[in-house]
Amino acid sequence: MMIESNSSLKAFNTFSIEAKTQSLFHFKTLQQLPELLALVKRVRAEKRPVLILGAGSNILFCEDFSGLVIKVELSGVDIIESPESYQLQVAAGEDWHQLVTDSIDKGIDGLENLALIPGVVGAAPVQNIGAYGCEFKDFCESVEYIDLDSGEFFNLSAAACLFGYRDSIFKSKKMENALITKVTLTLPKKWQPHSRSGVSNQSDAAQKVTAKEIYHSVCQTRSEKLPDPEQLGNAGSFFKNPVVSKQQAEHLLNLYPNMPHYPQADGNIKLAAGWLIEQANLKGVQCGGAAVHQQQALVLVNQDNACATDIVELAELVRATVEEKFNVSLDHEVRFIGSQGETNLKEVLQHVRA
Ligand code: FAD
Ligand code: EPU
Question: Could you tell me the domains of the chain?
Answer without folding.
Answer: 3-72 (3.30.43.10), 77-221 (3.30.465.10), 228-353 (3.90.78.10)
